[in-house]
Prior knowledge:
Among the domains are: 154-311, MetI-like (MetI-like fold), CATH 1.10.3720.10; 362-436, no CATH class; 454-723, Orthogonal Bundle (MetI-like fold). 81% of the residues lie in helices and 0% in strands. It contains 31 helices and no strands. The longest helix is centred in the first third of the chain and has 40 residues, at 75-114.
Amino acid sequence: MFRIFEQFCFIIKNDKDQNFMALIQNTNAPALRDSIQNYLIPGFIIIALLISILLVFQSQDVSEFPIFVTDAFTFTAWVNQGEDYLKEHYRWITRLIASYIKVGYFALEDFLLESSWLFIVALILIPSLAYGGIKLGALVLFGVMYWGMVGLWESAMETLALMGLSVVLSVVFGVILGVFCAISDRFERGMKPVLDTMQVMPAFVYLIPAMFFFGIGGAPAILATMIYSMPPIIRLTSLGIRQVPNETIESATAFGSSKSQILFKVQIPLALPSIMMGVNQTIMMALALVVLATFIGAQGLGSEIWVAIRKLDVGAALEGGICVLLMAIMFDRFSKAISSESITLPSDSQKFYILPQTWDIYPWARIVEKPLEYIHFGVTFILLGVTKIFSSIIFYIISLVNRNFGDVISSLINAHYVLFSGILILYGIYFYDSNILTIGTFPENWNLSIREEISAGVKAITVNPTFIAFSKGIRSTVVIYLLRPLDMYLTYLPFWYTIGALVIISWASVGIRFAITTLLLLLFIGACNIWTEAMITLSSVLISVLLCFVIGVPIGILASYSKRFQNFNEVILDAMQTLPYFCYLVPVLMFFGGGAFSALLATIIYSVPPIIRLTVLGLSQVSVTYSEVSKSFGGSTLQTLSKIKFPLAVPSLVMGFNQTVMMAFAMQIVTPLIGGKGLGLEVFNGLARSDTGRALAAGVGICLLAMIIDRISLAWTKNQREALGL
Length: 726
């Protein structure tokens, strides 16, 4: 790696006077062979590209697989026949399972809808204050009140019921399966391909079999959400248990602990941080699919957004999207707060409740936080006093029968004063609502809705001549010069040439085994008669990724050089990565309407965060020493960036490419809602025609393309790291 760095510095030093002869004289024989390879490989690529363009111009129509192959390979018919057989013989089992889930779902939904709004607010707010403090409590209070003030209280409760039951079931079954994966290598090997398929398969595809086997409504939505959101909790549970040090297990064994005692009293407690991270990821994935579940009859915020999109009511759609965003941020922060470890502050430090703890060095920050400290102590004193009185009453009652047991219960209540104080507050609200004065649902006169103002503002912008000219210019440039040419190139290019090119790339990047796998996967896509749609999807993904790089890399560079901009940028990226991808359709629809360009733009907005983050990461990880040496050789900031930092950050950039591609493929499943085409549209058409086989084939096609690009990009990342000695 140091030799590579010396070569970079040498190039910088000679870049000003263009003295290339000195570079040639210092090049040894192996480097000469490398340079020849560096010229040969691009030469072969250029020749292959020219041949492909010639083939495209010679093609009269889009390339399709031979009819005798597509007619013989009746995958869709097999799936539909298998579905009919399962429905005929085993549907009663699935409907029985759905009936039990419906009972739990309806009970939870009725509880949330029939409880007073103040009770629900307290039920969500109290745990948030206990684990996350005033900062998280303020966020949760704002989010919950916002649901009611925009008139979406009942829809939010329906979404909470769906997500709550889905997450509970996912965590229960996921932890059990994760434990089995941790204690059995054979079981883990069997689960790994299943989990890989579950995580790569587009979310919308899960709704199709769920609808046919479990009906419509909440039950199939919960079951589909379980399947979609379980992989993270399974993987992270297994990882957490396996990462427990062997010395700890040996010590427990030496003290005579059984395998079950080691598992439940040693391994699982030590794996809790990893398990809680899995719970966090499960919550976020569950919320993403619960919003999509509106297409199989599930009610909630997703239904409100979809109805608003169909009516082109951008104000209502944006309000629903903000509700989902706040819900996602709330549960994301809450789950992280539960799993975070408490920080012990120095004795001379003042605890901050709202401002960042690092601001403790500023006197004005201490002054601002001082009243909050007094309030915190006051509330804690009151809660401790109330809990003490309650525990004394419980102790007196139990001590009439068993004094020792009463002492244990009293100590338990005093030790968990926040929990029992919360229970008392909730009971007090319930008692007041039931016996004194009915609180009821959220007050309708507490209205903060701005949907009409939003709609009017969007309308004013979209009819503005400047905006019209700007949007038309961007749309025409992207569609005419990027999207349409690549669409035509990939769809008119003979399928055998495309397959051959991808197989050669797979062989050169990964190896012969994966090249054979790539060949079989691409033949499957073509034999299912979805080759044209697959190429349209690939075209959309490639253009999206290209534009993500054009937008994301400069932002990442700026963030790596400016700490203030990076802090601002992180807040936006956190919100973008927390928001379910269904909601990205709303702002695009607001300003650009429907169509292929809007689908492309929604994909870019959803997929750009990884490349920004990993650009910042890659450039920030380059040692400061390299930059200082570069400057000592006379290199400018631009030369240091282009000749040193960027080459060393290539592995992170390639990983950013990988993540961006995967997110772009995931977005293809929902872009047909605003005019997207390709395999995502085939999934929607299959769902509309009750053609499970066609929809499943299209969903699997997206999955297979994503897997091929994923493995190739990961291999590139590995090769770059090895080349740089990382």
